User: What shape does this take?
Amino acid sequence: MGIKKSPAKSTRTRARPTQGGGLADSLFTKVQQRVLGVLFGQPDRSFYANELIALAASGPGAVQCELARLAASGLVTVSPIGNQKHYQANAASPVFADLSPFAARLCAHPAARASVLWMAVTTAAARRAVRESP
Assistant: This one.
């Protein structure tokens, strides 16, 4: 006797596999790809937040969250100029030399983007292995 309760439905959604997803899609979210593409595509230039939001064609919250993560990781430098924070790719970052030549192509065709990122990852791994070898 009593009322039978139905099992609670999960509120989590499952990620659907995308067709034709490349390596870049596996490593970086779309917002990360766009922000990295803008910053490392023009590493000698600084951008203010609203400019990056417009160039990345993404929401302000997502871009600002990504900028905070990149700044905390040391990939991006933050310089206050007046009332604005300017963001620029950090040339002193250990992965700058590996990431900057390829970041401009992050917004390219998925197949090209995957091959470029694969080259970047393998090049970085090879350089790291040479540095760490006795």
About this structure: The chain has one domain: 24-132. The two ends are 74 Å apart (CA to CA). DSSP finds six helices and three strands in the chain.
